[in-house]
What we know:
Layout: E1 5-10, H1 14-24, E2 29-34, H2 37-46, E3 49-55, H3 63-71, E4 81-85, H4 91-99, E5 102-107, H5 112-174, H6 178-209, E6 217-220, H7 221-234, E7 241-247, E8 250-253, H8 255-272, E9 279-285, E10 290-297, H9 317-321, H10 329-339, E11 343-349, E12 353-361, H11 369-372
Helix pairs in contact: 2-3, 5-6, 7-8, 8-10
Amino acid sequence: MTAPIHILVVDDIAQNLVAAEAVLARPGIVILKASSGAQALELLLTHEVALALIDVQMPQMDGFELAELIRGSERTRSIPLIFLTAASREPSYSFRGYEAGAVDFLYKPIDVKALQSKVAVLVQLFQQKRELSAQLDELKHALHLNELFTAVLGHDLRTPLSVVMNGAMLLPMMSEHPKVIVTAQRIESSAKRMARMVDQLLDLARIRSGTMELRSSTHDYLALARAIVEECETAGQAAHVELSSVGELHGQCDAGLLSQVISNLLCNALTHGEAGTPVQLVVDGRDADSIELRIANRGVIPAAVLPTLFEPFRQAGEKRRMGQGLGLGLYTVNMFVKAHGGTVELSSTAAHGTLATVRIPRQCQVRVQAEMAT
Length: 374
């Protein structure tokens, strides 16, 4: 059942409280009556209120003072306040009321139709706010379940995937038939590609849930880059990578995450670069405060695609249809670099090709995970 909506009426005259209840009460509406400011504050401690009707002229604590106390509390400051008064309509009087937080003034004797109309509007707004809040909670819960499912799925896929990869490696040892060897190579290649997808799913789950930890220590950036190039050599791509360095290349980083950054950017450059042209990987340590990685190739990224490259699942349509990835590579690159307190930029022109520039502070600090997920 829908929770009732509460309206607070504050007036030191009992007859006025009874009259307000008679005018405003209807199914789903509960009228909370207070004969003083102190009693009104007590009711606000235990009830969520859609709006408050406050008599200005009350002993001990007048309506303006009560309004200031309501506005001073984080829990109640957003409650709409309507002042009821028999005083004159002087501008200075109204100004003080609006300054205290009033959304409207009603002068006695009260126009019942006007009061009912104004209250109905504020009640409707409160209902909409409550419904939006409930929908937001449901969406957050659904997102949490989705992230949990992704993490569990990625983790559980590792075991059968490792069996497939081990089987593919054993097949050539069991038979020298050319077709068997070719099939085993295809299985192993597909399994490795699937392993990369699983890793991306796990990275995405860690990023979105805020559980990814940065294990920072001092490393040689050139050594990390050379190890990635050697991996490409194993895959038959290193002949297209030209690695160079300059300056002091030792700095703090999470070696695992930074290696993924280099690997993703390098694989993108090798995949989308012009055939027959090398990819340039430069590790630049000339700056005293940061280390820069530059990966350049002769491919061109359409200008319309550049603004969304670092968003998840924004992979080019043709590549997605071919099943070559999940479209999370550049997204995880951006998140991992942010985790180090660094920046990543991409530029692409027909004249100069595509350039990815990563800057990492030498003394990187762990960023708040909530900031990363935004």
